[in-house]
Amino acid sequence: MAAALFLLPFYLLLRNGLASRAEITAPQWTFFPSTVHWENFSRLFSSSDVPFARSLLNSAIVATSQTAGLLVICSLAGYGLARIPYRHSRAVFYAVLATLMIPTSVTFVPSFVVVSSLGWLSDFRGLVIPGLFSAFSVFLFRQYFLDFPRELEEAGRVDGLTRWGVFWRIVVPNSKGFFAAIAVITVIGSWNAFLWPLIIAQSPDSWTVQVALSGLLTAQNPQLNLLFLAAAVSILPIVLLFVFLQRYLVRGVTESGLTG
User: Fold this and answer.
1) Alpha helices (runs of H) in 105-175, residue ranges in sequence order
2) Which of 57, 106, 109, 128 is the most buried (most CB within 10 A)?
3) pLDDT tier for residue 223 given thresholds of 50, 70 and 90
4) Which of 113, 131, 132, 133 has its CA nearest to residue 121?
C-alpha cells in the first residue's frame, strides 16, 4: 500500500505526459489516456522555446563536475581536520560548522556579485565552482576519517609513503563506499538545484533541467502535457542512480558516525 502511494506521482507524470492537453483538463478522470501521444517526446525535444535536450546535458555536466570537485576538496579538508594535528584545528572545525547555520539564500547576493564580476554568468564556471565546497560534506568526511583504522596509515608510513601518498593510495581506495555515498547525495542535490542556476544561467543555452522546467511552466501558452513529460524525463536519471546506489547511502550514514 505504501509503495503504491509513493509510485502514484510517477504514474501521474507518465499518464499526463502521454495524454493530450484536453484530457488533462477534462472534468472526467480516466486512468489511461484514450490515445497515447508518443509524439509528445519529439515535441519536447524539438521545442524552440525551451532547449530541453541541451538542459539535460548541462545538468549532467554540472552535476558530474561539481561532484568530482567536491569529493576532492571536502575529503582533503575532512582528512586534514581528522588526522593532521595543528594548533587551531578545533577552531577551524567549529568555523566550518558555523557556516551550516547561515541560510543559503543570504549568500546569494554576494556570491552573485563575485560571479558577475568574474564574467561567469551563463557559464559552467559560475554554475559549478560556487558549489565545490560543502561544510556538511566536510563534517561527514571528518567523522568518517576519525574512525578509519590508523594501522593502515601507519603501515603506509613505514613503507615510505608521505601523508599525501597515504591518503591517495591507502585511505581513498579503502573508502570507496563512503565516497560513493557522498557522491550520490551531491549528484542529487546538484541535479535538483533551481534557485542558483536560475540566477546564473541567464542564457537558454546554459539552462539546467530545473530551469528548463520552469520555462515550460511560465510560457505564454503552457503545454501541460509537455511539462509533465519533461518532469518524468528529468527525474529518470536520479531514480536510476538511487536504485543502483541506494545501499551506499545507508552505508554512508552508518560509517559517518551519525548513528547512535
Assistant:
1) 108-117, 124-128, 135-146, 150-158, 163-166
2) 128
3) confident
4) 113
Span 143-164, pLDDT tens digits? 999 989 999 999 988 888 888 9
Grid coordinates given for 235? 527525474
Alpha carbon of residue 158 to chain centroid: 39
Q: 47 falls in which pLDDT band (50, 70, 90)?
A: confident
Closest C-alpha to 18, from 232, 240, 238, 234: 232
Let me know: does 137 contact 74? Beta carbons within 8 Å. yes
Task: Tally Cβ neighbours within 10 Å of residue 117.
Answer: 9
State the CB neighbour count (10 A cutoff) for residue 104: 9
Residues constituting the chain: 260
Contact indicator for 196, 130 with CB cutoff of 8 Å: yes
Cα 31 vs. chain centroid, distance in angstroms? 33
- 203 Cβ partners below 8 Å, 6+ apart? 122
Backbone angles phi, psi at 229, to 5 degrees: -65, -40
All 3 cell numbers of residue 17?
A: 505526459
Type of residue found at 75: S
Residue 183 CB coordination number (10 Å): 21
